[in-house]
Amino acid sequence: MHVLRLVFLLCAVAFATPALAARCGGDFNTFVAAMSAEAQAAGISQGVISQALSGVTQDPAVLNFDRRQRGTFNKSFEQYVSTRVGPGRINIGRAMMQRHASLLSRIEQQFGVPPQIVVAIWGLESDFGKGDIGKLPVVRTLATMAHDCRRSELFQGELLAALKILQRGDLPLRDLIGAYAGEIGQTQFLPSSYIKYGVDFDGNGHVDLRHSVPDVLASTANLLHTSGFKNGAPYGEGTANFEAMREWNRATIYRKTIGYFADRLAGQ
After folding, report:
1. Using CA atoms, how far apart are residues 223 and 22, in angstroms rounded to an integer?
2. Distance (Å) of CA 225 to CA 53, 106, 107, 117
3. Which residues, 6+ apart, have CB-to-CB distance to 45 below 8 Å?
4. How far out from the chain centre does Cα 136 lie?
5. Per-residue b/e over 74-101, b at no fewer than 16 CB within 10 Å?
């Protein structure tokens, strides 16, 4: 997960679900028991709750990382984009557009998002699925962050969403791993976004944002489409499409980087 995106993600309390009953802070096991009750009330089976939460412990490294990322991002666009969009990544991105041309065409037809935007996001988030998409157990990460009182409501909601992913059978617990704020998969969806925007585009009955390229790219396009992205319209700063990309990332500098990368992929 890129630091820039994480800084804005952790401020994005709009992703939170309505107020939950579990009290943050205090004894961690007591908190987990309260979250288990919340999960049951939300329709999560006792089997899934026990599998995911029994014996879960706090992860101090997650809290330490989170506290280190609470500053202001102070690079200029030019400085940032030079570190993220170079000739090598552009060439790989163009190769990916060719390799997945048929898939991207179907995605564009259904969701109205051009291939270069989808592939730019894919490249920035995980080097087209080849980069680091996180190695931390998502349930442990989210339970740790939910217990911390700074953004407890946000992460309680994300923890419930992660349990829903397990209950739907989209990913087994062993594959429910991610980054330092619980982001999952090749384009780094929070669990709530996974539930809200995830698409089973390969038709196997599951939304798999870790392993299935069709699901990854279609779900990314679905998020933008649902947020109001319009195909054929400009997406630079100041446009309606640029604003629609706020649901992906609130940071202006990051959205400008998506647009810059997309233009390079499209040969502009």
Report:
1. 29
2. 34, 14, 11, 12
3. 167
4. 14
5. eeeeeebbeebbeeebbebbbebbeebe
Cα separations (Å) of 110 from 18, 89, 100, 104? Answer: 31, 27, 15, 10
Active site residues: 125
- What pLDDT, in 10s, does the model give residues 224-256? 999 999 999 999 999 999 999 999 999 999 999
pLDDT given at position 12: 47
CB under 8 Å to 112, separation ≥6 — which residues?
A: 221, 225, 229, 230, 231
Long-range contacts of 21-25 (CB under 8 A, 24+ apart): 22/146, 22/152, 22/156, 24/146, 24/147, 24/148, 24/149, 24/152, 25/147, 25/148, 25/149
Output the six-digit token pair for 77: 């666009």
* CA angle 87–103–207, rounded 5-degree value: 105
Q: What does the pLDDT read at residue 70?
A: 55
Low-confidence ranges of the chain (pLDDT < 70): 1-21, 70-73
Collapsing DSSP states into helix, strand and coil, what is residue 137?
A: strand
DSSP codes joined into one string, 154-211: HHHHHHHHHHHHHHHTSS-GGG-EE-TT--BTTTTB-HHHHHHH----S-SSS--TTT
Helix (H) or strand (E) holding 259: helix 252-265
Hey, what are 70's tokens? Answer: 């609470």
Distances (CA, A) of 56 to 36, 42, 64, 127: 12, 20, 18, 31
The pLDDT, as a whole number, for residue 21 is: 59
pLDDT 10s digits, 36-77:
999 999 999 999 999 999 999 999 999 999 888 754 467 899
